[in-house]
Amino acid sequence: MTQRCLAHEYGLAKEKRSLGARAIRGQRHPQAAGFAQAELRWPGLRQRYQPRGNAMSGGEQTGQLLASSRELCPREQCERRQQEQEISGGRSRASTPAPEAEAARGGRGSVQPRDVRMCALLSATCPGQPLRTAANARRNEPCSKRYGEGKKRLPLEAESCCSGGFPKLLQIKLISRSRASFRVEHPAGGYKKLFETVEELSSPITAHVAGRIPTWLKGSLLRCGPGLFEVGAEPFYHLFDGQALLHKFDFKEGHVTYHRRFVRTDAYVRAMTEKRIVITEFGTYAYPDPCKNIFSRFFSYFKGVEVTDNALVNVYPIGEDYYACTETNFITRINPETLETIKQVDLCKYVSVNGATAHPHVENDGTVYNIGNCFGKNFSLAYNIIRIPPLQADREDPINKSEVVVQFPCSDRFKPSYVHSFGLTPNYIVFVETPVKINLLKFLSSWSLWGANYMDCFESNETMGVWIHVAEKKKGRLLNIKFRTSAFNLFHHINTYEDNGFLIVDLCTWKGFEFVYNYLYLANLRANWDEVKRQAEKAPQPEARRYVLPLSIDKVPARHHRRGAGPGSAGTCPCAGDESVWLEPEVLFSGPRHAFEFPQINYKKYGGKPYTYSYGLGLNHFVPDRLCKLNVKTRETWVWQEPDSYPSEPIFVSHPDALEEDDGVVLSIVISPGVGPKPAYLLILNAKDMSEVARAEVDINIPVTFHGLFKRA
């Protein structure tokens, strides 16, 4: 029996992409499988290309000219062929403007991928308007009435980019002949500034604003990340080891200020007091005090595990309070106005978890859901979903009312999987159990006896693959369907929602069972560009994926277990003697050594619901060098990127009176060493087209930040 596509069964067939070529010369259907439109915005230069991804083999792509999605009349087809011939022969008049010409127009200079060639500049082809090209200046008769008037165009914007005398020109590009052409190189190594120690500020400093801050944007951007990468002569070794630094950009009446302070965790205070690393971090072991005598040093090894409270990963609200967090059982309450540290909170005292993720789900009423591993039945490990209620009328701290709502079993009795995030909808909880395991026995023994750090206790189960668990949120009952798929690393869920008896789970995955964090040691990230690329070539490769989970076994094509059924499909296969649902993903975004990571959506309105847009940080061989907007329905991608500039996770802020999902702005902290006098700035982009609205520049460097939020005034 032929396996059917689940995407068709639950009504998303319109999202599937036809692989058949259209009648238009050299053009495939705009929604062909694997297509990913992207738009690179450089100063003075816009590029639009459409890599085919899985639709082509060997990474070879045939150049195709894309102007709009409407049918072309014979005259337009003839002109298009003429333009292609001129370009292939190097005779196109619409060449890239010289740097001198760009500078004369006040731009910052133009940079483009090496293998992406310019093609003709076309005037806006709106219905009823004549078509003009730089290759042929004669006036053409309006033909859109007879050929596709009113059909939807690709959202290309008019921008005059050459010295020719053609008004309102559109810059159209050829599809690259090589995927490598989408790669931007960083030989100067400016990304190393992301991993330099900085000092905190005694008071906020005023940022210089270029552009105009939207009047409705009022509040604070709070960000968290490492700011101290060594203590005295002792360095930290891993990206997740540096001591936590809180950042704040404050928006008031069009003005912006910047402030930062270290979180006064136990790890930080003791390190500053003793002038050495005192508590073992993720990838750095804290050795005993060398000033102690040999007996004191020996017995210090047997004190047991001293878990770090270094809250460098994220900030989130609980009730009226805000907490900085890492991935242990400790969270740290902070003052979001002054960035002062208030107190440490141990979640183990309130609920049964050994630790909790830094990516809780916060619902609109203030309810917080999180997940952490714990000891379950028969002394085996399990995963608890904890619920922290919103602030009640009695004003009691909501943490005191924390409770476990459901428990997921562990695939290995003594080796829980590493968990960084999970999925949540109004009715279901989705937990993805990956093959990256924590060896608990090694964690407890080697740590105490001969010294180890967290990274030393991770190992990979090469035969497990990935298990996906689903539970009913309100009833706390596990769904009795075993979902299985091929191995990958997972750190961030994009979104999860329900659709006609199915769960749609969108993930940022890294293919394979090897732990990606093995490649995030600071020595690798601070290396020269060629070495960074060499290390990234060995690492698991990134891919944004969609998995479709049937909520009933009746939705699964019966008694067939062919695994290669195509995008969005699922089937059953014998797995460990049981009938399990095998899932095959649909690719949302894929590029060689290019990741769509740190995803953000319009969470307040579309979290756990059907959505269209996601914003992400583009990683180029682990180096963050672009901001992306992804349409998960059409796979269209917009990209902001500037030379030698390194942004952070994009934070979407919705307009107060928004009518559409992407009506708002995107905020990101960017460092730009060697580009102008200001080393860092807060970037504000139009969330619709990723065009720059404004930037708030500061005179000091800002190190890497991981996650954060926008707190409205």
Describe the structure.
- The chain is mainly beta.
- Helix content is 10%, strand content 34%.
- The chain is built from 9 helices and 41 strands.
- The strands form 10 sheets. Strands 20, 21, 24, 25, 26, 30 and 31 form a 7-stranded mixed β-sheet that branches.
- A hairpin with a 5-residue loop joins strand 35 and strand 36.
- The termini are far apart.
- The N terminus is likely disordered.
Give the overall average pLDDT: 76
Query: Helical stretch count?
Result: 9
- What structural class results from the helix and strand content? mainly beta
Strand content: 25-35%
Amino- and carboxy-terminal Cα gap? 59 Å
The whole-angstrom Rg is 27 Å
Can you count the beta strands?
41
Q: Low-confidence segments, ≥5 residues, pLDDT <50?
A: 1-71, 87-181, 293-302, 558-577
The major beta sheet can be summarized as: 7 strands, mixed
**Share of helix, binned:** under 10%
Q: What global shape is seen? A: globular
What keywords describe this structure?
713 residues, mainly beta, seven-stranded mixed beta sheet, six-stranded mixed beta sheet, 41 strands, 10% helix, 34% strand, globular
Brief summary:
By secondary structure, the chain is mainly beta. It is built from nine helices and 41 strands.
Task: Write the SSE topology.
Layout: H1 6-9, E1 38-42, E2 45-49, H2 74-88, H3 99-104, E3 118-123, E4 169-173, E5 205-206, E6 208-211, E7 219-228, E8 230-231, E9 234-235, E10 243-252, E11 255-262, H4 266-274, H5 294-300, E12 314-318, E13 321-325, E14 330-334, E15 341-346, E16 361-362, E17 368-375, E18 381-388, E19 403-409, E20 423-424, E21 428-433, E22 436-438, H6 440-449, E23 458-460, E24 466-472, E25 477-478, E26 483-485, E27 488-499, E28 502-511, H7 522-525, H8 529-538, E29 542-550, E30 570-575, E31 578-583, E32 586-590, E33 594-600, H9 603-606, E34 613-620, E35 623-631, E36 637-640, E37 651-654, E38 664-671, E39 680-686, E40 692-698, E41 707-712
Parallel strand pairs: 1-36, 26-31
Antiparallel strand pairs: 1-2, 3-4, 5-11, 6-40, 7-10, 7-41, 8-9, 10-11, 12-13, 13-14, 14-15, 16-17, 17-18, 18-19, 20-21, 21-24, 22-23, 24-25, 24-26, 27-28, 28-29, 29-32, 30-31, 33-34, 34-35, 35-36, 37-38, 38-39, 39-40
